[in-house]
Every structure is written in structure tokens, then in C-alpha cells.
Amino acid sequence: MEILDILIIGAGPIGLNCAIEAEKNNLSYLILEKGTIVNSLYHYPLYMRFFSTAEKLEIDGVPFISTAPKPGRQDALEYYQGIARQKNLNIHLYEKVLHVSKNNDLFEIETTKGNYKAKNVVIATGFYDIPNPMNISGENLPKVMHYYTEPYPYARQKIVVVGSSNSAVDAALETYRKGAEVTMIIRHSEISKSVKYWVKPDIENRISEGSITAHFNSEMVEVKENSVVFKDENNQIHEIENDFVLAMTGYLPDFDFLRNSGIELNGDCLNPFYNPETMETNVSNLYLAGVVCGGKDTHLWFIENSRIHAGLIINSILSKYPANHL
After folding, report:
1. Mean pLDDT in the chain?
2. CA triplet 256, 258, 259: central angle to 5 degrees?
3. Predicted TM-score (pTM) of this structure
């Protein structure tokens, strides 16, 4: 069995960047991805636009051409998948990593399709795979959606949107404009300050004029077949008719996978341990890259500020060995 210099888990933008840096330094590598290239971006809402401008999403100095001031999902898919094609990166798609273990100085990686050995492993799996649950009765009913793609299925339906972040606000505005009757259940006293600055006035104005109903300082209690139950800031219980629930409550990294790989998780946010100068975890030669580094604080890292992780990781790996050792 070939022993790889680096095995990279996740073919998102940061995983791709790690592969590019490995190839530049003549390191053998393989990316394993459980879905398609930039799988998380593929599952974003169809009309989503980034907060960042195109140049801040670039990797390896390859220009990101976008006619819009803020590129959208399709622009990003074309860009990152185009880079993977152009550079002919070594990627196995639709192959999920099940377990990573270390035996002496080598990692053994078990997947749904095979087994691999590597000197170093980079986990760049993001956080979009596991929805943050509401932990209420009825959450598993078919009418409850934790992922939102487009507004058309919700036309003329009574929609409850849970949350007030970018994903919740986008879902509320888009479904409202396609004819849905939209109610927002928001745990906090206002729309999240992190909402894109050109969108925030829109949702606030729709709420002010009554086009979208918003219950602030409120919390979902139960989802029923034809209604939802929530409590307000005075702990008063309310029940309203409902067809669909869009639970835009955020997403979490796969903490079980990180723990089973030997990575320490700390504090209430389950922050994984890593050296910020090298991105190396408490397990020697096991690295983290991208938004997975933030634990439950998924707003800490994003493409724009985690592009540097690839360089830090490769420099750390190279510093441990003579040039002819790898």
C-alpha cells in the first residue's frame, strides 16, 4: 500500500488549497470527499450570495471572475471546480472517511471504499453536514427542513422560519416574495448583527410593515402536523397554523469524528485543540484547516480568513523532515 505524505479529508476550498500547496512542494497527497467538489457550497441555497468580494475567495492566486459585486453560489462552484479540473488535483469523490487512527508514526484511514496510510492527515471537513437541532417534539416530521435551497416549494404555504441569521433571513425574504405567509421565531431581541448589510434593512422593513411576522425573544416548543407551538418572552404559549418549518438554526462539525481521531475538544463551544502557528492538533502530524477549527463557533472561520491554513500546514510538515525524507 502506498504511503501518502498527506491525506486531506474534505474537498472544500481550504482542502483544495492544501492539495495545491502539497503539489507545489512535491508531496504526495490525496483528497477524500464524501460528496462532490466543494460539497457544502453545492448544498447552499441556489441564489445565495457571499458576504466577501470575489478576490477574497481566491486560492492560489487564480483570479475569481464575477460580474456581480458579491459572487453567488454558482460563481463559486464554477471557480473551485474549475481549479480542481485545471490543476488535475488527486481527489476521490463520494468516499466518506469513517475512521482515522495512528499506528506508530503512520495514520491508517478507513473509508467507505477502502483503506489508506499517510504520514500526515489534514481534516478540512467544514461544518455544514450536521444541523444544530432544536431538540423539541416533532422536529423529525417531514415538514421540518434544516436545509433551504429555493423558495418555490413554499408558495402559498404557511411558513415558520426559525432563527435570524443570514440563512434564516434569506429564506424568509425569498419565500415571502413567492407568496408564502411567513412567520419568524427568533430567540433574540433583534435580527442578527451578522446579517449581510445590504439585506438587513430589507428584512427589518418587511417586519415593520407587517409583511413578515416576527416574534422576538421567543422559542419553539413543539412542531405538530398542522401547527407549531412556541413561547414568547413572557413564557406565554402560542399555537399557529403551519405547513412547513424552515429550521435555520445553524450547523455543527462532526464532533464525534474529531474525538474518535484523538483530537481534544475544549469548553462549551467544543473548540478543537490546535496550534494556531501550525494548525497541528494535540495528535502529532494531524492538522485542522478551515471552519472546522471553530468548534460550535462556526462564525469564527470562513474562506476569506482561513486560506492561510494551507501554507501554515505545509510549512509545518516540511520543517519536520529533511528535504529528501518525504
Report:
1. 94
2. 65
3. 0.90
DSSP 8-state assignment for residue 274: B
C-alpha cell at 21: 500547496
Distance between CA atoms of residues 281 and 13, nearest Å: 20
Question: Taking the CB of residue 268, how many other CB atoms lie within 10 A of it?
Answer: 8
Q: What is the helix (H) or strand (E) element at residue 108, kind and residue range?
A: strand 106-111
**Best CA proximity match to 37, nearest among 71, 6, 78, 75:** 78
> Grid coordinates in use for 10?
474534505
Q: What are phi and psi of 152, to 5 degrees?
A: -60, -35
Q: Which grid cell is 208?
A: 415593520
Question: Would you say how long the chain is, in residues?
Answer: 326
Q: Sheet with 158-162: list strands edge to edge.
A: 144-145, 244-247, 158-162, 181-185, 213-215
Residue pLDDT, tens place only, 51-71: 889 999 999 999 999 888 899
d(CA 175, CA 47): 12
3-state SS class at 212: coil
**Residue range 132-159: mean pLDDT, rounded:** 96
* DSSP type of residue 273: P
Confidence of residue 186 (pLDDT cuts 50, 70, 90): very high
The SS3 assignment for 103 reads: strand
Look at 172 and 128; give whichever has higher pLDDT.
172
C-alpha atoms less than 13 angstroms from C-alpha of 323 in its C-beta half-sphere: 1
Cβ pair 26, 317 in contact under 8 A = no
Higher-confidence position of 111 and 326: 111
Residue 246 near residue 185 (C-beta atoms within 8 A)? no
Spatial distance between the Cα atoms of 248 and 134, rounded to a whole number of angstroms: 10
**Whether the Cβ atoms of residue 7 and residue 36 lie closer than 8 Å to each other:** no
Helix residue ranges, H only, 185-320: 200-208, 255-260, 303-306, 309-320
The letter for the amino acid at 213 is T
Q: All 3 cell numbers of residue 250?
A: 445553524
